[in-house]
Design a protein that fits this description.
Pfam families: UstYa
Largest sheet: 3 strands, antiparallel
Order of helices and strands: HEHEEEHHHEH
Shape: globular
Strand order of the largest sheet: 2-4-3
Number of helices: 6
Radius of gyration: 19 Å
Number of strands: 5
Strand content: 5-15%
Keywords: Membrane, Oxidoreductase, Transmembrane, Transmembrane helix
GO molecular function: oxidoreductase activity
InterPro entries: UstYa-like (IPR021765)
Protein name: Tat pathway signal sequence
Oligomer: single chain
Helix content: 40-55%
Distance between the termini: 17 Å
Length: 221
């Protein structure tokens, strides 16, 4: 996640990218990311395999399957929906944790913390932060920038072209990494035909209890 954003030269995403293309990519991310961030890795893994001690607690599977269905609270561009997405965006900054001995866990250096130790993040919150950032760029384009808040430096940063481009690629890799194996069937049209697969109404049995993350963050602020 972008812990120390720099002031962008351009405040909004270039209009060279069509709203249709951005919408398609965003829609794909919204449908797919639920599986990506919920199944995740049950422990904090490093590419070099040097774990040392266990860091993140094991995430247990939820007792009941999670059925993906449209949630109107997270759809559209009304003020209450924006508040929910803004929380996901800010969690990318606020949901980090401090370690006094990160090398014991095989970690490279984090961001120096004000009161000592080093600050680290969790990928799930970074992924949701990126998704919320892309959403803000999309609605600022389609709604004539009516959701901009010039006084907020974080909003200035999330509209930066390079930041949004980073989020597209980051989410692509996160979705492939988590690889939700749930088999999805087709939806039934009003005439009884089955022509498309939209992912709704399908139970996912690999979703994990992410409240463990919340507890871990609270203990290591």
């Amino acid at each position: 996640m972008d812990t120390f954003p720099t002031k962008p030269k351009k405040r909004y995403f270039p209009h060279g990218l069509s709203g249709c293309a951005l919408f398609s990519t965003t829609l794909f991310a919204i449908i797919s990311l639920w599986g990506a961030y919920l199944i995740g890795s049950s422990r904090y893994h490093l590419g070099n395999g040097n774990m040392g001690k266990t860091l993140i607690p094991t995430l247990p599977l939820l007792k009941e399957p999670v059925v993906f269905n449209p949630d109107p609270r997270w759809s559209g561009s009304d003020p209450e929906t924006h508040k929910l997405w803004e929380k996901e965006h800010l969690n990318g900054f606020t949901h980090s944790f401090v370690l006094d001995n990160p090398r014991d866990y095989g970690l490279e250096k984090g961001v120096p913390a004000r009161r000592g130790g080093e600050r680290f993040g969790i990928s799930m919150y970074h992924q949701l932060h990126c998704l919320a950032s892309i959403r803000m760029v999309y609605f600022n384009q389609t709604d004539n920038h009516q959701h901009r808040r010039d006084e907020d430096p974080w909003d200035m940063e999330l509209r930066n072209h390079l930041h949004t481009d980073h989020c597209f690629d980051y989410l692509r890799q996160a979705i492939r990494c988590s690889a939700d194996p749930t088999v999805e069937w087709s939806r039934v049209e009003t005439n009884g035909e089955r022509r498309e697969i939209d992912g709704w109404g399908v139970p996912h049995t690999v979703c994990k209890d992410v409240s463990v993350f919340e507890e871990f963050i609270a203990q290591h602020q």
